[in-house]
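Researcher: Checking consistency across runs. Here is Kynureninase again:
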Amino acid sequence: MNADDFELGADYAAERDAGDPLAHLADRFYDPDDEWYFDGNSLGLCSADAEAALDRAVAEWKDLAIRGWTDADPPWFYYGERLGDRLAPLVGADESEVVVANSTTVNIHTLVGTFYDRAEGTKIVVDELDFPTDHYAVRAQLRQRGVDPDEALTVVESRDGRTVETEDIIDALDDDTAMVFLPSVLYRSGQLLDVAAITEAAHERGILAGFDLAHSVGVVPHDLSRHGVDFAVWCSYKYLNSGPGAIAGLYVNEDHFDARPALAGWWGHDKETQFEMNPTYTPADDAGAYQIGTIPILSAAPLAGSLEIFEDAGETGLAAATDVADATPTDAADAVAAGIEAVRVKSVALTEYLVFLVDERLPDCEVGTPRDPERRGGHVAIEHPEAYRVGEALKERGVVVDFRPPNVVRVCPSPLYTSFEDVWEVVEQLKRVVENEEYEEFETRGGGVA
């Protein structure tokens, strides 16, 4: 796709929507009235499917009480594993390699700690544009082991303040590197890193490779097992649309099932003997070992509903995507895998269209996201010197976006519920805000949530 593939005008956008095989999925989401919601990379919208799954869990609690652990569908005792089975196709993993558990930051702690203990070397390679919690957790795990983070962290610098080059990451790997731990998508600019190339380069040097998929899971297909990624973490409240603070997920390559989790808890115990209450911890022999506390059913249930939408996306959208039209889903796992491919096709088209419109309609703004779709996740960073106030002015107009310092308005056309007409209208709103300097009516940023 390039600029020649797009046209200006609302009529053109409507034509694109008419040919969108996923357009009907938007009807399953609760979209706030009189708003254009473009913040799904921070918090996805609630769907009727997620709501229904939560209602089912509440009904089971009412009807079964404690018997829900064994008699619910699926039994709550295996809820994390069963949801992990359903999530596995989204990240290209075997079912045993994925489990739903904990929070993203907790999963970073347990996986970075575990893999650091079994790695050669002392250094961990990260990048300077990481989401802060990743660095907080990595530094804490180093300190727990008596290692000075200032000495053990190798921080790959950005050349332009927006992106990180693959060759710079690879050049940072040396004989004393234990692991590389990076995001799949940079949270500010939306750059999609080359997970396969980084993993291959790490393994050639005997280095472990882990990734934070928080800004890619649910909008970018992954192939973690085939690429040999050692471990990964993610949240489910962005593109997976599972609710604020929803349960997180993790992946551990089957080659590491013999590892002993650095953070042990009773929910990661071998299921067959868990209720024997032995004082000695016996971890499960798969990714389930990295569960720590009892699974919070009510914050996990919406994910079950959200995954149904991906299944339907695969069944209804795949046939219209010319590059994957010959694949016909045969079961739920195939449908989910097909669904994420169809979602990616639409996501690339929406972000490409957004970039085109910024170039054509917003001369005072700049795109800070890579233009090559192979290097772009699901959102676009639009840069303006008054980005914070621009964002506030947009919200006044009913456009929900977010700000990331120093100069980025993040705009996310989430493909399950965003249309081409939505993108056109939001750019028109942004054009009015910038051209008329409506942002001048707003104060510069203070504290609080952006």
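Researcher: Does this match what you'd expect to see?
Model: One thing to look at in this run: The chain has 14 helices and 13 strands.
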